[in-house]
Amino acid sequence: MKALIQELSHHIRDVIRRGRGSVPNRYTSGIAKGGDAEFPVDRLAEDAAWEFLKKREISVAVYTESEGLRVIGDDPRYVFVIDPIDGTRGAAADFEMACVSIAVARFSETPTIGDIEFAILQEIKTGNWIYADESTSGIESAGYEGGLPQLGTTTSLERMFWTLEFNGHPASLMIQSYGHLIDASANRGGVYVVNSASFSISRIITGQMDAYVDIGNRLLRDHPETEVDFRRVGHGNILHLFPYDIAASVYLAERAGVIITDAYGASLRSTLLLDISPMNQRSCVAACTAELHKGLLDSIRW
């Protein structure tokens, strides 16, 4: 399984890198099942993942962002939850912040993040990767000087380097909630918007970032009247963290020692892998230290 997952990830990345010049990268070509904009490079990556697994002639279930759940063969033991490009806009601009994300769990009607047994994130631009499975206690990686994990020790909200999310999130609502944290950290720390949950979470593992925050789904749950605003910026859809966005990165982050929960401080392990409805979408607060994680939960203006 490890060899299969790593080969699949490398294949998807290779297809994306080779195909960059053959597909337009700055317009949307459709809408994914969850409602997010689909770019031509997304379709290229989706097809690469599906065709690779079909040619292997093994029975597996496959869940991808654009196509949802499909099954190869008659008796799948595992389900592959694949986001072929987490960070499509980064990939379209040929920036670093885009990953192939693959998580594998035992197949059932209701698999959860807690059921994941194998996971890999691979950076599309560099080829660097992070991998873990249930046979070992830590993580494996390639391409990162000094090896991983390299978690930071930051505890200060003023000093933190952090990423946050705006795609599908009303900017005015986000600023009301954590604008004071942006003000506090933008000069003495760093504030980044990269539009990839996987890349953001993995940067805590590499030590480049101290925290990642996506609070949209908690705000919706706490304040249902905000749904109209979330749907307005989502072009009619709720675009919070889908399970495929974070499945692999949550598994890897936990193995690396990152403090990672939803925005209530609860574990993400009960998240259903195959359900993309708004109430199964998630929020996320991740940090390199327990003190910083608590500081974020306590300071955001819910």
CATH superfamily of the largest domain: Fructose-1,6-Bisphosphatase, subunit A, domain 1
Point out poorly predicted stretches. none
In N-to-C order, the SSE pattern is: HEEHEEEHEEEEEHEHEHHHEEH
Beta-strand proportion: 15-25%
**Global Rg:** 18 Å
The strand order across the widest sheet is: 4-3-5-6-7-8-9
Helix content: 25-40%
User: Count of helices?
Assistant: 9
Mean pLDDT: 94
Give a quick precis of the structure.
With 302 residues, this protein is α+β, with helices and mostly antiparallel strands.
Features:
Fructose-1,6-Bisphosphatase, Chain A, domain 1, alpha+beta, 2 domains, 5-stranded mixed beta sheet
Molecular structure report:
- The chain is of the alpha+beta class and 302 residues long.
- It has two domains: 2-142, Fructose-1,6-Bisphosphatase, subunit A, domain 1 (Fructose-1,6-Bisphosphatase, Chain A, domain 1, 2-Layer Sandwich), CATH 3.30.540.10; 161-299, D-Maltodextrin-Binding Protein, domain 2, CATH 3.40.190.80.
- The chain has helices spanning 2-19, 40-55, 88-92, 171-185, 197-206, 216-222, 227-233, 243-256, 290-299, and strands spanning 30-31, 37-38, 60-64, 68-72, 78-86, 99-106, 116-123, 129-133, 140-142, 161-164, 190-193, 211-214, 259-261, 284-287.
- The chain is globular and about 55 Å long.
- The mean pLDDT is 94.
Question: Topology, please?
Answer:
Layout: H1 2-19, E1 30-31, E2 37-38, H2 40-55, E3 60-64, E4 68-72, E5 78-86, H3 88-92, E6 99-106, E7 116-123, E8 129-133, E9 140-142, E10 161-164, H4 171-185, E11 190-193, H5 197-206, E12 211-214, H6 216-222, H7 227-233, H8 243-256, E13 259-261, E14 284-287, H9 290-299
Parallel strand pairs: 3-5, 10-11, 10-12
Antiparallel strand pairs: 1-2, 3-4, 5-6, 6-7, 7-8, 8-9, 12-14, 13-14
